[in-house]
């Protein structure tokens, strides 16, 4: 960066509006967090969601198991609630592919979090 100046702080940010896929991803992650907290008020959740071309990927760790909270069902419900319900919107919440890469929270992280 030729125009970079010493002592200056540079930052970039993005803001997206209703209907943007990033907003959908945020709402799915929030839906998962809400469901985990409803099941266990002390739940720990680190969740990212990504989407592209009728595909939703949930990636993260939590101390709430997939047997206790249905992550796929939450993703589909959120999609439909906010209008992603046909291929015309780019994602059909009823029929999209969903990849779950959600694992139990790492024991070292869990121990550190619960010690505080």
From TrEMBL:
It comes from the Eukaryota. GO terms for molecular function: ATP binding; metal ion binding; methionine adenosyltransferase activity. The keyword Metal-binding applies. One of its GO terms (biological process) is S-adenosylmethionine biosynthetic process. InterPro entries: S-AdoMet_synt_N, S-AdoMet_synthetase, S-AdoMet_synthetase_sfam. The keyword Metal-binding applies. Keywords: Metal-binding. It holds the Pfam family S-AdoMet_synt_N. Residues 9-105 form the S-adenosylmethionine synthetase N-terminal domain. Signal peptide: none annotated. This is S-adenosylmethionine synthetase N-terminal domain-containing protein.
């Amino acid at each position: 960066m030729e125009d970079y100046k010493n002592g200056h702080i540079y930052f970039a940010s993005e803001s997206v509006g209703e209907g943007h896929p990033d907003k959908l991803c945020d709402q799915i992650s929030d839906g998962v967090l809400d469901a985990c907290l409803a099941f266990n008020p002390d739940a720990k959740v680190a969740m990212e969601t990504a989407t592209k071309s009728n595909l939703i990927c949930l990636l993260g760790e939590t101390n709430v198991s997939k047997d206790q909270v249905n992550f796929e069902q939450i993703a589909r419900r959120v999609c439909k609630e906010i209008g992603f319900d046909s291929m015309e919107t780019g994602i059909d919440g009823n029929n999209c592919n969903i990849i779950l890469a959600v694992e139990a929270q790492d024991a070292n992280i869990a121990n550190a979090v619960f010690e505080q």
